[in-house]
Amino acid sequence: MIAALLSGLQTAPDHGGGDPVFYGGINWEVLLIIVIRVLVAFVVLLVATALMIWFERKVISDMQSRVGPNRAGPWGLLQTLADGTKLIFKEDLIPNKSDPFTFKLAPYLSTVPAFVAFAVVPVGGVITIGSHTFELQVADPPIGILLVLAMSGIAVYGVMLAGWSSGSKYPLLGSVRASAQVISYEAALGMSVVTVVLVSHSLSTRAIVAAQSNGFWNWNLIRLGFLPFIFFMIAITAELTRPPFDLTEAEQELVGGFHTEYSSMRFGMFFLAEFMNTITMSAVVVTLFFGGPNGWIPTAIPGATIFMPVIWFLLKTAAFCFVYVWFRAALPRLRYDQLMDLGWKRLIPMTLAWLIMVASVITWRWGGLIMLPVVLGAAVLLTRANQLGARRVEADAILPSVGRRVTGAPRLTTVPDRPDGDDA
């Protein structure tokens, strides 16, 4: 029966030239296909998010020699459902000093961008059912990757407005941290994506996947020299405020972060958005650097050209979900000054340098290596500038050396802290 069902499906060539479902115009059948794709993607993403929460708790418990969820359902699989049911029936609290409309709106501003970003990710190839050919993808706009970047930037509005509208200083501090963190890593994230766009010659996510076909050696991971992938992973982890970059909800100094005043399902939506974003950005990483649904397909199996790309996509995405869990279990949280230094002093210069090298090689081929000494020289100068800046004391920033010579003011130096018992 399965073979008969698959025999009614046919594959079509995929060149990243837009969704073929619209080639014959728009009618009720096309609209029905669009609605079905949206509903399927939404349900699959919700189920995947529930499994991701269970998966993260189980993996971390194994890494820490604990049992983890094991009560609700087999292997604790229904624990997420139990937690969600509990949140639904909890009392929904709204602080007296809050802005009620913004307070209620903020959770949706964090959740909706995660689904919209996932909508442009290709999860499979192009298939034909009856007279309609369409992509296994909710939407394929010609600027798909720009939409992903826009959604990653818009998501921080939910965090910022949640902290501001709560009427409490601790959520506000967490939301301000989130804004500064996203701004710090947005530039590095964008420049890493630009390198992918340069070699793919398109902003369409489907075209980016098509450019990585014909073997894993054509994946952007290899073609771009691995470094853009590393830069992207660091930047997107900071964008998602996942550990070790979860400074927006550091319990040591912020109680719970931007969602301190939230309860019931509004808190659950922030919780849902975090894990949904993790799955979405894992899928984006697979699309940009690992060929998306591309992989080896056993042609001897009937229908393999239809379901094998989906399987490859799921396996790659699950692998990166595990990487995020691994980060959480293995890495300590950074200090906020370390977070800023990594973003501004290291990640942005390195991504800019590699972008210049990639653009030069694409433009001039081997002649583009002439930019290598220029990039190395700029790196030396920047490193020297950072070293000089690190040696300056706070008094130098207030009164530079030139000012002291003019005014005759003495040089102020920092005094080390005395050990306990020597204060007298």
How would you summarize this macromolecular structure in one to three sentences?
The protein has 424 residues and is mainly α. The protein has helices spanning 2-7, 28-63, 79-89, 100-119, 144-165, 169-200, 205-210, 220-223, 227-239, 251-254, 264-289, 304-330, 336-364, 371-391, 394-398, 401-407; strands spanning 9-11, 126-129, 132-135. Helix 4 (100-119) packs antiparallel against helix 5 (144-165), helix 6 (169-200) runs antiparallel to helix 9 and helix 13 (336-364) runs antiparallel to helix 14 (371-391).
Descriptive key words:
3% strand; three-stranded antiparallel β-sheet; mainly alpha; 424 residues; 2 domains; disordered N terminus; 16 helices
Structural account:
The chain is an all-alpha fold. It folds into two domains: 9-334, no CATH class; 335-393. The protein has 16 helices and three strands. The chain has helices at residues 2-7, 28-63, 79-89, 100-119, 144-165, 169-200, 205-210, 220-223, 227-239, 251-254, 264-289, 304-330, 336-364, 371-391, 394-398, 401-407, and strands spanning 9-11, 126-129, 132-135. Strands 1-2-3 form a three-stranded antiparallel β-sheet. Strand 2 and strand 3 form a beta hairpin. Residues 1-16 have low confidence and may be disordered.
Question: For the residues shown, what is the average pLDDT?
Answer: 82
Total beta strands: 3
How large is the share of residues in beta strands?
under 5%
Oligomer: single chain
Q: Structural class from helices and strands?
A: mainly alpha
Shape: globular
**Distance N terminus to C terminus?**
88 Å
Helical content (DSSP H or I, runs of 4+): 55-70%
Q: How do the SSEs run, as a string of H and E?
A: HEHHHEEHHHHHHHHHHHH
Which stretches of 5+ consecutive residues score pLDDT under 50?
1-16
